[in-house]
Amino acid sequence: MKKRFLSIGVVAAMFATGCSEPQAHNTGVYMLIDTSGTYTEEVHQAQQIINVILSRLEPSDAFAVARVDTGSFSERDIVAKMHFDDRPSVTNQQKRQFRETIDAFVGNVKPSSYTDITGGVLQASEFLTEKNTGRKIIFIFSDLKEDLQEGYIRDIPLTLDGFDVIALNVTKLRSDNIDPREYMSRINAWRDRVEDGGGKWQVINDLESLDVMWR
Amino acid sequence: MTVAELFGGELMNTLALIAIAVAALYFARAPMRGLISSMCRALAQGLRFASQSLVDARTNLTARNREVLLAAGRDAAARMVEREFERFGDTVQRDLGQYPSLHQALAERASNLDDDYAKSTATAPSPPGWAEAVEAVAAVPAKADPVLRPVLESIHGSFKEAADEASEDYRKDCRTRHKHLNEMAPSWREALKLLGEVKTRLETTNSRAASVDQHMKKYEEISAGTDRAAAALQSSALVQFFVAGLVLVVAAGGAVVNFHLIARPMSEMVGGNAFVGSFRMADIAALVIILVELSMGLFVMECLRITNLFPAVSALPDHVRRRLAMVAFGLLFSLACVEAGLAYMRELLLQDELATTALLRGDGIAAQTSFLWITTAAQMGMGFILPFALTFVGIPLETFVHSMRAVLGWAAAGVLLTASFALKLLARGFDEGAEVLTQLYDVVIFAPLWVEKRLTGEDSGKAKTRREAPQPVGAKALMKDVEERLAS
Known about the structure:
The complex is a heterodimer of chains A (215) and B (488). Chain A has 215 residues and is an alpha/beta fold. Chain A has a single domain, classed as von Willebrand factor, type A domain (Rossmann fold, 3-Layer(aba) Sandwich), CATH 3.40.50.410. Chain A contains seven helices and six strands, in the order αβαββααββααβα. In chain A, helix 2 (43-56) links the parallel strand 1 and strand 2. Chain A is globular and about 50 Å long. Chain A starts with a helix and ends with a helix. The model of chain A has no long low-confidence stretch (mean pLDDT 84). Chain B has helices spanning 3-27, 29-96, 99-119, 131-139, 148-224, 227-270, 281-303, 311-314, 318-361, 372-391, 394-444, 446-456, 458-468, 475-487, and strands at residues 275-276, 279-280. Among the domains of chain B are: 98-224; 228-392, no CATH class. The longest helix of chain B is centred in the middle third of the chain and has 77 residues, at 148-224. Chain B is elongated and about 195 Å long. Chain A binds chain B through residues 22-23, 25-26, 51-52, 54-55, 58-61, 86-89, 91-92, 95-96, 99, and chain B through 264, 267-268, 271-275, 349, 352-353, 355-357, 359-362.
């Protein structure tokens, strides 16, 4: 009789612990920084945003920063990446190291000829899927004007189920001022691509809203 | 087919259906009335039965509550009487145990007083044996015989000397007596003091005896199961429940503070992002530590016999209980030290996090404040003291648990009473509802009923019956009848 109760208990415990997939509570953040043309001047603002994100991240979270250049679907474009330790004290040290890496990047950034945002987003989704974090966020610090080099194929559907894609500091180009429909259509095109891929789209131009979002 | 024809046809069909339904209802009137009446009566009876069952259950529960309350009160009163007897025994041992020595001291003082009194007794000077001869000599004229004169003067001198010596002896004797009387004063004072002490001790014993009497009387009342005792116990249990509840809420506040002191540094040990379900592992670990501390505190209280939540602990032999108390206290002390360490670590982590945040904001390294050690020391002190403070939760917890039984019993009795009242009300509703439903049924089939009345002449028959019915005898009619009889 006792053995029977024991076996029932073991089975119940297995059901409670094993059958349900442990849910990840950490956050994965991948930030794409547009380094094309004149947008390179905005990189200092990106640095501030990275610092805000760093201050909000917690132990076990993952963070990567990559530049958007001619061909962004590559690990070589990742400027810094870190999977933070689950101990708060170690996480703080890692955050400092991350900041130093970003500072070095900002000091030596060179403008690229083309802008491959789609490649960056594909790389980001691959990175975050591999990290298997509970929440997945892709920040795109860009004017969202994609300029692909000839031969690069980026007209492919994105798989962004469970991703939050947030465009930051989407500046208006000179042509946008002449015809604002260009700006609107650019943003709408990206919204459609992300939402078609199953992700959530958001545009944040006021950087204070970013702080609010993290709360 | 036109629209009018279509709708006219449908209307006719509907009217025909209604007529058939009304006719069917009319013909089924008698059995339907019976069905409605029986159904409502059955439901009402069922509800009344349920209500009565609830009343019975409440009566049993109230009786059981009373029994439990009286039993608990009897146990508590017995413990109090036992404790009062112990105190009385201690008082008797302390105050009256030394009574023989006190009595001896008093007897010694009395003996000394007796001796001194005996010594201070005045001894009358012995009367001279030759007083008459002296008187005769004194009566001789002084110049009667010159031969006698020197003799008489010699006698006179001797008498004078003897008188002086006697006076001196008497004075000496008086001085000795006064000295003895003087020596009696401290003995009197000592005796008075001793008597005062005896009085105080007897008064203490009397008051303790009165207290024992009071508790015995209470115990007897509870044992007799009087209504007064039950009411007093009820009131007492309710007050204890709320007071203990209040203290437990305060203690819970302390536990929450304690939890926040150690939850953050716990993440350094068990990971900052590990979850069990939707709860952080660090929070669970901190909670477990606090609960273990509470358990150890309860065991310490049990082993010291301050509380009596676990009869198994009280039943242990004294030496085992003492060892258990020491082990529990040792664990509690260790956990308190761990908490103090965690509180210190919390401050370090906080400072590290602040420095990192300041660096990320671009503020540079935050300056160390000079009074930082105060908060660190305060946190460590709280981390060390709170586990011991929470130890005392055992006392209100015991009171809360014991009084909760009575309070829950009253609450259950109240719920049963309310439910019984509601069921009775519902039963009454069904009683009245039967009549209302019957009337509604008649309203639906009013047309065939009206036709039936017209055909059977029930109304005229009823009117006739009403006319033929004897009129109620009023005062005027009665007077008229009496006058007629008198006239005839």
